[in-house]
Amino acid sequence: MIVEDTRQQARKHNNIEKWMAAHGVDFAPRAAALPFGDYMLEGSNISIDSKQDVQEVAGNIGRDHARFVRECDRARAEGYRLIILVEEHPEYNDRSKLHGWVSYVCRRCRRCNPLRDKGCKKYRSKPMNGPTVARIIGKLEEDHGVRFEFCSKRDTARRICELLGVDHT
């Protein structure tokens, strides 16, 4: 049975729940919060943490970096493989395309070219953009044993099953 963290926002992952039910996958919220990640298979050492997009990842690895690293290290210390599954529009749902990603803050501002200019004309600090995100996730994978994967939202439930080794046919 795939268990879901009880701290998941209500109705945020309806697409996952509907897909699992339609494909006969045994799926339920866990009675207590998972120690890390959002999805686990009972008896497995793999934990999947879903992120709604690259913007959420940028916040986790930037502003919340220390907390995020602690979670990665805690999973590793307990013998788990933590996989961060980033749900993203097809424009950026592949790591090779990540270098062209621009933060929502920069998309709204439009005063500079965030991928070219060194500073920001509106904000004191430059928001995190694709090249920086790509560099940091590479370093996290190397130093903390976490793995980042990208998929489109419509494929999230299927990908969770594949990563956990659950038959969904």
Summary of the model, kept short:
The protein has 169 residues and is of the alpha/beta class. It has six helices and six strands.
Q: Which shape, going by the Cα principal axes?
A: globular
| Number of DSSP strand runs | 6
Order of helices and strands: EHEEEHHEHHEH
Radius of gyration: 17 Å
Helix fraction bin: 25-40%
Please supply descriptive tags for the structure shown above.
single chain; 169 residues; alpha/beta; six-stranded mixed beta sheet; 6 helices; 16% strand; globular
Please characterize this protein's 3D structure.
Helix content is 36%, strand content 16%. With 169 residues, it is an alpha/beta fold. Strands 2-1-3-4-5-6 form a six-stranded mixed sheet, sandwiched between helices. Strand 3 (39-41) and strand 4 (46-51) form a beta hairpin. It is globular, with a radius of gyration of 17 Å. The mean pLDDT is 86.
Topology, pairings included?
Layout: E1 2-4, H1 14-22, E2 27-29, E3 39-41, E4 46-51, H2 54-61, H3 65-77, E5 81-87, H4 104-109, H5 130-144, E6 147-151, H6 156-164
Parallel strand pairs: 1-2, 4-5, 5-6
Antiparallel strand pairs: 1-3, 3-4
